[in-house]
Amino acid sequence: MRLGINIDHVATIRNARGGIHPDPLKAAKIAEKSGADGITAHLREDRRHISDQDIKALKENISIPLNLEMAATEEMLEIALDSKPERVCLVPEKRLEVTTEGGLDLLNLTNKKESVVFDIIKQCKKSNIDVSLFIDPEIKQIEVANSLGVNIIELHTGEYCNSQYKIKELKRIKDAVIFAVDNNIEVHAGHGLNFENVKEIARIKYIKELNIGHFLIGESIFMGLESVIRKMRYIIDTSQ
Questions:
Q1: Residues 35-60, buried b or exposed e (16+ Cβ, 10 A)?
Q2: pLDDT digits 0-9 by tens, 151-160
Q3: Is the full-model pTM beyond 0.90?
Q4: Which CATH number do you get for residue 177?
Q5: How many structural domains are present in the chain?
Q6: Catalytic residue among 9, 42, 49, 156
Q7: Catalytic-labelled residue, pool 69, 93, 138, 219
Q8: Is 214 a catalytic residue?
Q9: What residues make up the domain containing 53?
């Protein structure tokens, strides 16, 4: 199971003072040597943390894959085609949200938005950029993702992490994973994962990749980034 490290909140801390420290690229390089299989960065439309320059620096200076999270917009498509990350992950985006609140609602896309999503998938594939859709673990959402022609989805694990009914939410994730794999879709997962709740997710053998950020960056204040990533890597590996 691959481990992707989201470095967004290194940039959040940097931007709090408007300077250059701490550097998200330095965090990515530490992650790279600490057992990470990829780096994830969300270039938001309002640029609240990761910047265009960060994406450029990451692409030019890391040797592991870059996963660019982005909204499904023409602006972001242009940036993706120019920067050429190994993968883009299309996520919902609301200007006032503190963090991503759920997956893309593929069932209720307007005709215009569906056209944009389809165009992004088509053009990225032409440029050898993999495309993933960040969606809730629901069969109907996966059916639409399949019809759009993507071969990767990332399941939103936030409900599982926050719910008092973890067994129910875990079953929903497992059912979604099996349905996706049966339809030849590679499955990733992420959001809200920590040292404890990641264990059951890591036991789902058909999930190929976990993307984890906020918890690791926060915990690194106490443990150091390298130690935190190595511990998460160990927990994932020994849980399978």
A1: bbbbbbbbbbeeeebbbeebbeebbe
A2: 999 999 999 9
A3: yes
A4: 3.20.20.70
A5: 1
A6: 42
A7: 69
A8: no
A9: 2-239
